[in-house]
Amino acid sequence: MTGRLALALLTLSLTAPHGHGPDAVAVGMEAKTAMHALWTASVARHTELVACLASTTDGDTLRITRIQPLAAGADSMAVSAEASLEICGPPTWQGTLHTHIALRPDQQPYALFSGADRGIMLMWWQRWKSDGTFCLLYAQDQAHCEIDGSRVLILPSTTY
Q1: Is 15 left (phi over 0), alpha (psi -120 to 50) or beta?
Q2: E-assigned strand segments in the chain
Q3: d(CA 35, CA 20)
Q4: Cis amide bond preceding 91, omega within 30
Q5: Residue 78: pLDDT over 50
Q6: Which pLDDT score is estimated for 1?
Q7: What does the alpha-carbon distance between residue 160 and residue 143 come to, in Å, rounded to a whole number?
Q8: What is each CA distance from 32 to 73, 101, 148, 157, 159, in whole angstroms?
């Protein structure tokens, strides 16, 4: 199998309807307010920030119910993920959320998880042995979320 074909099959398997998980994201009012505050603080400080994330699955919808910002930033160039791995675990937390405030050279936001982000998601699953919910805020009111661990569910981008 060529590399291109393998990549196409992997992409299809990650984005095709799974039938065993949510296919929409809803953000509760408390979480929405906290997400806006985190984005505003991240932009003001010119650094990525991270928060623990609480979520539930209600039928076909992942519901983000609450976030709790961490004191340490999330910038993979300067800050260890140790705090989020230790603090943001079950049963209180189902994963993490962080900001992507940097823009690509074409001035578009980085709306997907980086390779470093995916490494941290894997470490979270290895630490907690549970699928995690991971979101990134990539614009003032836009978020991208995934469920990652024993399976990968890429959810549609959502507004918050």
Answers
A1: alpha
A2: 24-27, 49-58, 61-73, 95-99, 132-139, 142-148, 152-154, 158-159
A3: 27
A4: yes
A5: no
A6: 47
A7: 7
A8: 20, 18, 22, 14, 9
